[in-house]
Amino acid sequence: MVMPNMGGGEAYDRMKEINPDAKVLLSSGFSIDGEASEILERGCNGFIQKPFTMNELSGKIGEILGKE
Known about the structure:
It is built from 3 helices and 2 strands. The chain is α+β, with helices and mostly antiparallel strands. It has a domain at 22-66. The chain is globular and about 30 Å long. The mean pLDDT is 92.
């Protein structure tokens, strides 16, 4: 998905403003370097590289929800 009006960092910030306890999984077709790394440093719960399988996504969601 391309977000023409808002970048991933801004989307993350807005989600956390609405619900500071929200669990956020960042997904990108780009490298984890750069903006993705910076978002993770700000507290994003995880990262998954596109393309990914349903099993990979399910595992990553399980990891994030299991961190409670």
